[in-house]
Specification:
single chain; 372 residues; Isopropylmalate Dehydrogenase; ten-stranded mixed sheet; two-stranded antiparallel sheet; 13 helices; 12 strands; binds 3-isopropylmalic acid; binds magnesium ion
Length: 372
Amino acid sequence: MAKYKIAYLPGDGVGIEVLEAAKIVLDKLKFDAEYIHGDIGWEFWCKEGDAFPERTVELLKNVDAALFGAITSKPVKTAQAELVPELQGKNLVYRSPIVRMRQMFDLYICQRPTKAYKGNALNFKENIDIVVFRENTEGMYSGVEFNPVPEELSAVLAKLSKPFAPFKDLKGDEYAISCKINTKKGSERIIRAAFEFAKKFNRKKVTVVHKSNVVRATDGLFLETAKEVAKDFPEIKMDDANIDAMTMWLLKNPYNYDVLVAPNLFGDIISDLCAQMVGGLGFGCSGNIGEKLAVFEPTHGSAPKYFGQYKVNPIATILSAKMMLDWLGEPEMAAKIEKATAEVIAEGKVKTYDMGGSNTTLEMAKAIAEKL
Ligand code: IPM
Ligand code: MG
């Protein structure tokens, strides 16, 4: 029996190609795993009305970790139009499977390391090394949304939000509501994870990203919680910045930042910005981590326009596989992947299109595998 059971969830588009690439690297390492394919993605939405079918949910309950590619998402109306005729008119609502997975399995940490590997011509500056901790289950992604807004909710809100209630004379279908819900527990555990990480890896500082000067309730709670948690880590410096200022400061002086921790949507935004500073989404790896399960995926999407061409950069996925090995307690294998990847980047001989080259996804994977 293999040592690990890994759910293999390619999803849509280039997700399929980059996962194939990561597996080349894992196989070369002789990573002892049984990979179990899981159905997920657009095809299953169209055919079954569920992009994340129950059988895949069950699979995830019985594995050590999962590797996930990418998924195509479309707006609600377009999604409904693509359902098979038997499912039309059933009032099915599309919700992003990865967002559901994060919530269903309580994968509350979204860890996104962004490191400028030496010799990567796409680096914004050399030596950038920032790790983003994004809250992954609540905030703007809570999924508590109304469009149209039910009358009873309108009435309660108009009563409670005096004096500013611009919607109070509107009908329910004339406005929409997306609730940003942050809990104390949800805030505390992601902030603690960021500090624990900083402590374990000798990082100097945790920066809390928020917008508490305006979004006072939720982001205020996040920042206050951070100040409390920080007391348990006197050896680590804490500072904070509003999300808008943060985007500016990150570009102005990336060396000032070490570990960032942010509520869901701000973490989503800031992690793309960080990825771009170290070469773009082709280098953006990530782990969705809970207590029992963790799912590793590149930050990029399914890029339908490139599907079938095997041209996208698999490094984001290969580095996500590296994160998986770390999480499983295989740091030696993980370190080998990182070293091999860094060597291939530094040599600059094998480059995918985003790096200005013409090598394929699988050529990049093989070049990394050869260095192992
Ligand atoms: C990410 C992506 C997802 C998100 C999308 C695909 C739902 O942008 O992982 O950053 O918004 O979380
Ligand atoms: Mg994103």
